[in-house]
Specification:
Length: 121
């Protein structure tokens, strides 16, 4: 068993939780013993309560699973949108860079041509 799950000596919160759990169990036992209803009726009520709690737990679990699934789909969608935006932005930057490089190459070619013309005179 995981040691962190057990109350530690000197841990006030751990001992308080243990005390509450023991008190709840003892209280439930005393309530069953002193219940004014018949044993059959009490057992039926316990069965119904257990069934209701079980169904609520299943419903809560399924709600949580749905929320996690939706969160995962949202995260995937956000990643894809980010990748698409990055690719689009990169293409735009590459296009701008190609234009700048082309203009610079033209300018260099003009300067070289001007130098050649000057040297030829």
């Amino acid at each position: 068993m995981n040691d962190s799950m057990q109350p530690r000596a000197g841990s006030g919160l751990g001992w308080a939780v243990v005390g509450i759990a023991i008190g709840a169990a003892l209280g439930a036992g005393v309530a069953l013993l002193l219940a004014p209803e018949s044993g059959a009726r009490t057992r039926e009520r316990l069965r119904n309560a257990t069934r209701d709690l079980s169904q609520r737990a299943v419903d809560t679990f399924e709600d949580a699973r749905g929320a996690v699934t939706a969160l995962g789909e949202d995260a995937r969608s956000a990643v894809h949108a980010g990748q698409d935006a990055f690719a689009h932005d990169r293409a735009a930057r590459d296009t701008r860079a190609d234009g700048v490089i082309g203009r610079a190459a033209n300018l260099v070619a003009k300067v070289v041509q001007g130098a050649k013309d000057e040297a030829a005179r």
